[in-house]
């Protein structure tokens, strides 16, 4: 770790304290007050260092509980001639502070722990003004009257030091660790430390030592749950151990059940003890909540008490709280969930109805692990089919597909209502498709049940079939099926299948109005039906993807950003999915640095959770981002893994997978191969009538130097009328004609659309077209614009951008391609095979390139181009 001594976020406080120490407004020093760990001692130490640097004599003392029992114990080190006579000691101390140095500074840390005689000496020095004082006291702790008089009588400025803000806490965190912390991890650390610098340092030290907080690619991640270590317990436990039993009971009640209504807390404990706990700064009363509620003053207080109070005691206290809360109506799903969690960890018998309602509430709050836990408890206590269906749904979403299938297969079908039977079949079919990757089995479940299914069940099955067809890359039947489903007549899970299928298919064929209309319907459904809450996150992924295909980049970013904010602090896979969707939107904007950061973080979490369907989907996007950033080797390695683990639930993005390969080839210099792969992706999309995806593929082909799809793009622009199709058609036409002015206009259109990467490449192609027309000024202007946009992207590389960057070298595109392959270590024969040409032709290109550049051999030629590309 680095930066352990950094002083963060105290600039203004330091200025005020220095002014008081220098006598401003008649003060004779300062008192720094605050809770334990907020940085009082650190700030006092900084004042001491500054005084010493200015040549001022400094003497320091520390008040302690043990020295408090000894008269003048804290100041004993200041005495040159120890004596047992207290009056002589006092006189000696006072005299030493008045005669040795008129500019002396006395620093007393934890002055609230001073004995009465030591406090008298300090007060006397302040009263006479013979030395300047730096004093720290802990808020909420009783202090000797002589100490409190220091600020009450106006001799010293009192500054109540507040905890660091969130931004200051994050800055301290980065300073301590030496590099940034990912957003979710920083949020978890903030939730526990709440700006307390001392607690933050201890927690970080503990978690780094344990290996739970670790660095990956220059970013720190905290993946595992926090446990209270002995060092943190000792840090906080001493002041709690000294408390009366009644006050400890108040703390433990709040620790197990915060926020705890004050009325309930008063009923279960002594009111005087509640007041004392509040006065000591151990709990706080949230007056803004209705009803008023008690919370721990600092999150770590609760962590320590829960870790140290004993399981039997805590279970008994939770039971008392649950019994008291039963008389109050729950305020919402969060309250129901909290009561059930308390109940589950108490000494009370299980209430299956409460646990089932809480499981649904946990699903609505997107806490999937808690949902599964509560539903399982309800099922074991007799919660019946509803509990089993709820649990199976949670298991499916937690990527525990085999367990989900076991639960569903064990349910007695003959006792199920039509609604429950429809939900069971929907869950089984979607589990087979998404989690177990058995699409044929998923289809068979639907086919076998459709024959004699009641109307509600049959409509639910058609909804499932809609999404099955959509993800298989068959959008037209999916649209027909999705339109026919009345989502008001089927269970929420089936309704969302129809909505998913419609959004995917409509996005693929380019019906953007239908995408928006259907997505809005899905969001409304998710708000009103708890079991559809998680499917809302999946809907966002399909909605954002469809918007990007249509060229509605700003709207896609807004939808993704909203979901990211909602999901980032949630537990488990939900947070990672929200982060991945935000990465997808950033990639669509061409913001490669942000896309890589978010996709890499999400992909790491999917990998740790062993979630194949999500690893496949977002592995494609991560590989594309790597390739567009010029990291071809990394992209190719990832795509090799992606290809080996293709997932049938994402067959509809196969053209996207091929595009990632195309970008990978381009990053490695094989530009003609890259363009050919992009055209093959377009053919795949055309065969599957995925017109919007075909547009994207043909646009990428133009970026890679092949505008042969211009006529097809013009037709697609006419038929779909999407923003992207119209701009892509103009792009292909201008690139084919080497029309610099038109390409410049296209770059502007791409930039206005929000796709900075496409704008950068179009500007680069405009620069090359102007150079070809011997319009050097325009060429230089567009080249500079292209490089600026590429930098805004975070390191975008395309063939045109590379060519504008090194166009001082008089090389043709084919010569550059061959030299790039030489740079990768390929022989002339391997290059000839890759480019489908003779070895003699390769040699001819290399010979001419050497003559143009003055190099003597292929190795010097490769070195020259490598230098130019840096």
Describe, in plain words, how this protein is organized in 3D.
The structure is a single chain. The mean pLDDT is 88. By secondary structure, the protein is mainly α. The protein has a five-stranded parallel sheet with strand order 2-3-4-1-5, sandwiched between helices. α28 (573-589) packs parallel to α30 (612-628).
- Please give the oligomerization state of what you see: single chain
Which range best describes the helical content: under 10%, 10-25%, 25-40%, 40-55%, 55-70% or over 70%? 55-70%
Strand percentage, roughly? 5-15%
> How would you sum up the major sheet?
5 strands, parallel
Calculate the terminal CA-CA distance, rounded to whole Å: 32 Å
Uncertain residue ranges:
none
Spatial shape: flat
Number of strands: 10
- What strand order characterises the main sheet? 2-3-4-1-5
Total helices: the number is 44
Structural class, judged by helices and strands? mainly alpha
Tell me the radius of gyration: 34 Å
Mean pLDDT: 88
């Amino acid at each position: 770790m680095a930066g352990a001594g950094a002083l963060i976020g105290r600039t203004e406080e330091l200025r005020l304290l220095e002014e008081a120490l220098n006598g401003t407004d008649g003060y004779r020093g300062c008192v720094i007050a605050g809770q334990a760990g907020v940085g009082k001692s650190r700030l006092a130490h900084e004042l001491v260092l500054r005084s010493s640097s200015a040549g001022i004599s400094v003497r320091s003392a520390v008040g302690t509980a043990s020295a408090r029992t000894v008269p003048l114990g804290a100041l004993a080190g200041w005495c040159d001639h120890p004596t047992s006579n207290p009056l002589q000691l006092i006189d000696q101390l006072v005299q030493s502070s008045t005669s040795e140095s008129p500019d002396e500074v006395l620093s007393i840390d934890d002055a609230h722990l001073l004995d009465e005689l030591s406090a008298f000496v300090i007060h006397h020095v302040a009263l006479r003004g013979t030395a300047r004082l730096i004093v720290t006291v802990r808020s909420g702790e009783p202090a000797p009257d002589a100490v409190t008089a220091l600020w009450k009588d106006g001799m010293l400025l009192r500054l109540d030091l507040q905890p660091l803000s969130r931004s200051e806490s994050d800055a301290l965190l980065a300073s301590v660790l030496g590099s940034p912390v990912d957003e979710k991890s920083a949020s978890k650390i903030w939730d526990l430390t709440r700006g307390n610098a001392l607690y933050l340092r201890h927690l970080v030290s503990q978690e780094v030592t344990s290996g739970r907080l670790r660095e990956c690619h220059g970013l720190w991640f905290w993946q595992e749950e926090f446990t209270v270590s002995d060092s943190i317990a000792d840090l906080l436990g001493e002041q709690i151990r000294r408390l009366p039993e009644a006050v400890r009971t108040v703390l433990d009640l709040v620790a197990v059940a915060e926020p705890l209504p004050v009325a309930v807390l008063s009923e279960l404990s002594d009111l005087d003890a509640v007041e004392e706990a509040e006065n000591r700064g151990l709990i706080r009363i949230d007056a803004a909540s209705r009803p008023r509620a008690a919370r721990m003053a600092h999150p770590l207080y609760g962590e320590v008490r829960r870790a140290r109070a004993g399981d039997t005691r805590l279970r008994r206290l939770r039971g008392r709280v649950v019994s008291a809360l039963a008389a109050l109506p729950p305020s919402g799903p969060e309250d129901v969930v909290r009561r059930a969690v308390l109940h589950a960890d108490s000494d009370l018998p299980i209430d299956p109805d409460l646990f089932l309602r809480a499981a649904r509430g946990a699903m609505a709050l997107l806490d999937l692990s808690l949902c599964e836990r509560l539903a399982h408890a309800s099922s074991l206590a007799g919660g019946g089919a509803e509990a089993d269906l709820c649990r199976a749904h949670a298991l499916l979403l937690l990527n525990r597909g085999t367990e989900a299938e076991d639960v569903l297969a064990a349910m007695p079908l003959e006792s199920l209502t039509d609604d429950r039977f429809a939900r069971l079949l929907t869950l089984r079919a979607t589990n087979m498709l998404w989690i177990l990757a058995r699409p044929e089995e998923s289809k068979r479940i639907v086919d076998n049940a459709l024959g004699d299914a009641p109307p509600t069940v049959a409509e639910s099955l058609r909804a499932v079939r809609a999404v099955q067809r959509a993800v298989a890359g068959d959008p037209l039947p999916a649209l027909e099926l999705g339109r026919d489903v009345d989502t008001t007549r089927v269970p929420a899970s089936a309704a969302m299948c129809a909505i998913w299928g419609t959004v995917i298919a409509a996005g693929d064929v380019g019906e953007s109005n239908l995408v928006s209309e259907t997505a809005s319907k899905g969001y409304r459904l998710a708000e009103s039906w708890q079991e559809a809450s998680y499917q809302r996150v999946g809907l966002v992924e399909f909605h954002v993807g469809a918007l990007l295909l249509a060229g509605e980049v700003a709207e896609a970013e807004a939808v993704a950003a909203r979901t990211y904010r909602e999901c980032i602090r949630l537990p488990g896979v939900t947070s990672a999915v929200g982060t991945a969707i935000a990465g997808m939107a950033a990639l669509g904007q061409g913001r490669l640095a942000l896309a890589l950061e978010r996709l890499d973080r999400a992909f790491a979490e999917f990998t740790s959770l062993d979630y194949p369907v999500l690893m496949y989907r977002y592995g494609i996007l991560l590989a594309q981002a790597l390739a567009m950033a010029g990291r071809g080797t990394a992209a190719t390695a990832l795509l090799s893994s992606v290809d080996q683990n293709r997932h049938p639930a994402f067959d509809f993005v196969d053209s996207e997978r091929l595009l990632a390969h195309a970008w990978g080839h381009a990053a490695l210099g094989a530009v003609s191969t890259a363009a050919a792969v992009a055209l093959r992706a377009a053919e795949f999309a055309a065969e599957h009538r995925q017109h919007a995806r075909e547009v994207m593929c043909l646009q990428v082909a133009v970026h890679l130097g092949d505008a042969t799809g211009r006529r097809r793009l013009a037709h697609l622009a006419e038929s779909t009328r999407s923003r992207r199709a119209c701009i892509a058609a103009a792009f292909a036409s201008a690139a084919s004609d080497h029309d610099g002015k038109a390409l410049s206009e296209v770059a502007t259109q791409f930039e206005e659309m929000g796709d900075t990467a496409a704008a950068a490449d179009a500007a680069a192609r405009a620069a090359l077209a102007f150079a070809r027309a011997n319009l050097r000024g325009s060429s230089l202007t567009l080249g500079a614009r292209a490089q600026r946009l590429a930098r805004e992207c975070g390191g975008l590389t395309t063939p045109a951008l590379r060519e504008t960057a090194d166009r001082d070298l008089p090389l043709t595109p084919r010569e550059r391609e061959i030299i790039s392959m030489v740079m990768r270590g390929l022989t002339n024969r391997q290059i000839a095979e890759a480019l489908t040409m003779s070895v003699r032709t390769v040699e001819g290109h290399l010979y001419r390139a050497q003559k143009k550049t003055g190099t003597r051999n292929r190795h010097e030629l490769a070195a020259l181009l490598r230098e130019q590309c840096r």
